[in-house]
């Protein structure tokens, strides 16, 4: 790569989250001179306030079930007590370890690390101001040929009276003690996952959401099965409801809903979406345009309206998922600094929601496929083997969505134990455009739940084109 001495570095990445780190590392591996500016925490939301601590907490919340379920298998175990502070300490230690890994990964790749808040001075210049992440950091200025904005997103609160009394996912991972009563507003990814975590750890949980079913955007059968699973987890669901105000009531908080219901809680968690983090970036000094909903406008090469400035990950508000940001960072670094580009299938990005039991999906929902034409639907609902002895009321639902004309499997959906683990493999099949016949000729692994995906021989119904009708 020809040396470009006009600028301090070839590439400057703002934000060391999943997308930014991948972009920086790959660009450096292609020989680019790269710097990353980070002001808050190495690893970004996923490592510090998202996927990683969330998954550890989901796992923590499931041990109580294992103890209870073991009785059916002959164990004389007694239910124990849970120590929240011990969990948070253990989780913090693990995150601290991961922060270190991120730093050393970048350093080993030859990336220059700058701690501080980054602000554009112009299209090719960034000024940095210390934020406290590194006590020895000094203000600075750096120029770059290309700048990537990978600043991610931040939680949004509903503008209701008393919203400042509610916390978001930014605070939930470091609560000083375990709340006994939790009111969660919103039934998207975060609301559902924390309803499961708190219920599993023994809290009394109210879940408030404005739809008839949780998790809008997922397949309807999955949403219905999730609704049942939430009931079975002991979470009280307040469907078709929104909060109108939150007031402090001694040590407790009272949440009033638009139907007049009043809920008492020790902690109110607003899980009502995230918005791109662009404020204080100094975008007004550039030609970067943002959309009405605050995301940075980009073209198909992640380039903003100011040539030379790019944006990846949640700040573009495409699909706010860690592996998507990583893929975007990788594609961009390859495109800018190498002549080989890898193809990625964003259309078949698998998704998972870590409730207990978890959900996972890839490809089209039944409704989306039916919009496009006649669709064969295969559904299987059963009690997993473990619960024949545990006695727990828990069902698994699996579903295949098959384009009738081509017989391609265009969607797969599951709620049940290990659904995310299993869906990763199915995502390869759906990405590869495999047909139902390929699933049918695959031999199952017995006894597993997964084998059901290759033994669904009888179509449950037809959707789309000639209407949704039972066969
Ligand atoms: P989501 O967009 O998933 O869910 C937001 C929830 O808030 C929905 O129930 C939504 O209702 C509700 N809501 C939004 N606006 C209002 C309003 N004005 N009044 C009432 N309710 C409202 O956001 P989350 O905060 O749960 O998560 C943010 C993002 O983080 C997700 O989109 C996801 O991309 C990512 N994430 C991914 C995870 C994973 O992959 N497992 C885990 C956690 C987060 P409605 O549906 O009606 O709009």
Automatic annotation (TrEMBL):
<feature type="domain" description="FAD/NAD(P)-binding">
    <location>
        <begin position="10"/>
        <end position="329"/>
    </location>
</feature>
<keyword id="KW-0285">Flavoprotein</keyword>
<keyword id="KW-0560">Oxidoreductase</keyword>
<dbReference type="InterPro" id="IPR004099">
    <property type="entry name" value="Pyr_nucl-diS_OxRdtase_dimer"/>
</dbReference>
<feature type="domain" description="Pyridine nucleotide-disulphide oxidoreductase dimerisation">
    <location>
        <begin position="349"/>
        <end position="456"/>
    </location>
</feature>
<dbReference type="InterPro" id="IPR001100">
    <property type="entry name" value="Pyr_nuc-diS_OxRdtase"/>
</dbReference>
<comment type="similarity">
    <text>Belongs to the class-I pyridine nucleotide-disulfide oxidoreductase family.</text>
</comment>
<dbReference type="InterPro" id="IPR046952">
    <property type="entry name" value="GSHR/TRXR-like"/>
</dbReference>
<keyword id="KW-1015">Disulfide bond</keyword>
<dbReference type="InterPro" id="IPR036188">
    <property type="entry name" value="FAD/NAD-bd_sf"/>
</dbReference>
<dbReference type="GO" id="GO:0004362">
    <property type="term" value="F:glutathione-disulfide reductase (NADPH) activity"/>
</dbReference>
<keyword id="KW-0274">FAD</keyword>
<protein>
    <submittedName>
        <fullName>Glutathione-disulfide reductase</fullName>
        <ecNumber>1.8.1.7</ecNumber>
    </submittedName>
</protein>
<dbReference type="Pfam" id="PF02852">
    <property type="entry name" value="Pyr_redox_dim"/>
</dbReference>
<dbReference type="InterPro" id="IPR012999">
    <property type="entry name" value="Pyr_OxRdtase_I_AS"/>
</dbReference>
<dbReference type="InterPro" id="IPR023753">
    <property type="entry name" value="FAD/NAD-binding_dom"/>
</dbReference>
<dbReference type="Pfam" id="PF07992">
    <property type="entry name" value="Pyr_redox_2"/>
</dbReference>
<dbReference type="InterPro" id="IPR016156">
    <property type="entry name" value="FAD/NAD-linked_Rdtase_dimer_sf"/>
</dbReference>
<keyword id="KW-0676">Redox-active center</keyword>
């Amino acid at each position: 790569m020809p040396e470009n001495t006009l600028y301090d570095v070839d590439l400057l990445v703002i934000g060391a989250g999943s997308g930014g780190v991948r972009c920086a590392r790959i660009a450096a591996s292609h020989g680019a001179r790269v710097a990353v500016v980070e002001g808050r925490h190495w690893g970004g939301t996923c490592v510090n306030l998202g996927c990683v601590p969330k998954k550890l907490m989901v796992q923590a919340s499931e041990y109580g079930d294992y103890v209870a379920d073991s009785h059916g298998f002959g164990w004389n175990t007694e239910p124990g007590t849970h120590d929240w502070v011990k969990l948070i300490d253990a989780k913090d230690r693990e995150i601290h370890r991961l922060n270190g890994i991120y730093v050393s990964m970048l350093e080993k790749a030859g990336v220059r690390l700058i701690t501080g808040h980054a602000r554009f001075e112009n299209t090719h210049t960034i000024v940095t101001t210390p934020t406290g992440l590194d006590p020895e950091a000094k203000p600075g200025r750096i120029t770059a040929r290309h700048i990537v904005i990978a600043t991610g997103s931040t939680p949004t609160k509903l503008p209701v009276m008393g919203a400042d009394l509610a916390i978001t996912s930014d605070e939930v991972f470091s609560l000083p003690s375990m709340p006994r009563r939790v009111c969660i507003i919103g039934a998207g990814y975060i609301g559902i996952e924390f309803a499961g975590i708190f219920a599993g750890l023994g809290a009394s949980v109210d879940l408030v959401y404005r739809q008839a079913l949780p998790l809008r955007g997922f397949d309807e059968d999955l949403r219905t099965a999730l609704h049942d699973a939430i009931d079975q987890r002991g979470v009280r669901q307040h469907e078709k409801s929104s909060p109108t105000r939150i007031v402090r009531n001694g040590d407790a908080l009272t949440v009033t809903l638009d139907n007049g219901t009043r809920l008492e809680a020790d902690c109110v968690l607003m899980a009502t979406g995230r918005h791109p983090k662009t404020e204080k970036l100094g975008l007004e000094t550039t030609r970067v345009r943002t959309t009405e909903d605050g995301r940075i406008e980009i073209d198909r090469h992640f380039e903003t309206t100011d040539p030379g400035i790019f944006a990846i990950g949640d700040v573009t508000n495409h699909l706010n998922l860690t592996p998507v940001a990583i893929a975007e960072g990788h594609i961009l670094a390859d495109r800018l600094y190498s002549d080989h580009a890898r193809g990625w299938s964003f259309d078949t990005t698998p998704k998972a929601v870590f409730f207990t039991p978890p959900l996972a999906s890839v490809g089209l929902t039944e409704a989306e496929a039916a919009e496009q034409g006649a669709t064969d639907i295969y559904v299987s609902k059963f009690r997993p083997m473990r619960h024949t002895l545990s006695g727990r009321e828990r069902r698994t639902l699996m579903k295949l969505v098959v384009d009738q004309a081509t017989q391609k499997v265009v969607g797969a959906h599951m709620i049940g134990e290990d659904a995310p683990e299993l869906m990763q493999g199915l995502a390869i099949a759906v990405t590869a455009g495999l047909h139902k016949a390929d699933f049918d000729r695959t031999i199952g692994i017995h006894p597993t739940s997964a084998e059901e995906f290759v033994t669904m021989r009888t179509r449950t119904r037809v959707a789309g084109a000639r209407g949704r009708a039972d066969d």
